[in-house]
Design goal:
alpha+beta, 7-stranded mixed beta sheet
Length: 123
Amino acid sequence: MQKDYLPREMIISYRDKDDTRLITLDYDTLYMEEEKYTPVRGEWEEFWEKLEEIGIWDWEENYEKCTMVEDYHWEVTILTNSINIYSQGCNDVPVHMVKGEFKSSLDEFWDALEDLCGWRIDY
């Protein structure tokens, strides 16, 4: 039975010239390489609040900055019972305004994900 605070699907990837990181959800457990963690309901609820704050549900489908070299590529797929997001980028990220300054929503997403699973996710 699907729990209402769990996403139906969650796949997050980040790739640069040195490394690739892939985080997936299998039912209620997050996996990254040999790491695995099963967040409890309160941790998921905090995660969803942080995603609301950064405006993830309003992200565009594609962020791309033309450069001679692909420095990094990222993808975020989150499917829930009520709302979905698929967004990807190459050398560019979504931003939002905080106290008159633009901040990287993607950086804040990585921080929220680190808080959820307790792993250090270098990006």
